[in-house]
Amino acid sequence: MVRVLAPATVANLGPGFDALGLALDWYDEVTVEPIERGLEITASGPGADAVLTDETNGIARGVRALLGDETGLRVHRRAEVAFGRGFGSSAISYVAGLVAARALSGGDDSDDRLLAEATRLEGHPDNVAPCLLGGITVCAGGRVARLDPPAGIGVLTCVAPGGLVTAEARAVLAETVSRVAAVDNVGRAGLLVAALASGRADLLFEATADRLHQDARFELMPESAALVRGLRAGGFAAFLSGAGPSVSALVDDARAAAARTLASILAEGWTVRVVPIAARGAHVA
């Protein structure tokens, strides 16, 4: 049996659509045990009701991507991370399964191999990369660069009380965007990477603005839109957490308490806290 801890993630970070992501110090615990045949899946924790218990389970798919489709498995997930809220719950499934499989097979597969398999299963790398590698990741052209978490900067997480299927949030996006919007996003995504690499908290507000995907998604989630706009009106670097409906913000230590207080006022009924960026990705515990 092997036990894996895999972190929640936040993708996009505003302008870095399908490219930027970070890991949170907020982990699900997954145990995987080979058995003679079949598939046994159980779950506990706040997100237990959303854990799939058949062959479509992401953990099982991750394990079998390395060990073969006929591998018998007994799986348990302690689901601390909310499903369908924008914190990479499906990425946790695939990455935890792949990391468990690597351990069970003797540990010969590289992180590059696991990342390629996780991206294939997930369909895009922005959540699976930070889940596997930890820290902050930049994905483009099939390559990934990783940054260590900057000192003094954490993540305000505002977990929405209800979920949204990611496919619905993608379906509302336009096929094309204007050159002006594209150039603006490219500049801000670059500025955001530079700010995080250098620990420049003073750049985060401008660096997290977006003109590519959030406005279209706000029509599906007006409460999320109001929260992002309310936090930004207060000077905080807020954005949709992944595809939403949850909201996150990059906050420096000096203003973290104020950001949490404002979010708690604006988002009654949401779960609000400040979480460190996790330096460590999914690992055998």
Q: Top keywords for this entry?
A:
single chain, 285 residues, alpha+beta, Ribosomal Protein S5, domain 2, Alpha-Beta Plaits, 7-stranded mixed beta sheet, 4-stranded antiparallel beta sheet, 10 helices, 26% strand, globular
Q: Runs with pLDDT <50, length 5+? A: none
* CATH C-level name of the largest domain: Alpha Beta
Strand proportion, as a percent range, falls in 25-35%
Main sheet, how many strands, which sense, barrel? 7 strands, mixed
Rounded average pLDDT: 94
Rg, rounded, reads 18 Å
Structural class: alpha+beta
Shape: globular
CATH overall fold name of the largest domain = Ribosomal Protein S5, domain 2
CATH architecture of the largest domain: 2-Layer Sandwich
How far is the N terminus from the C terminus?
Answer: 11 Å
- Work out the number of β strands: 11
Q: How many helices does DSSP assign? A: 10
Query: How many structural units, i.e. domains?
Result: 2
Helix content: 25-40%
Q: What is the N-to-C succession of helices and strands?
A: EEEHEHHHEEEHHHHHEEHEE
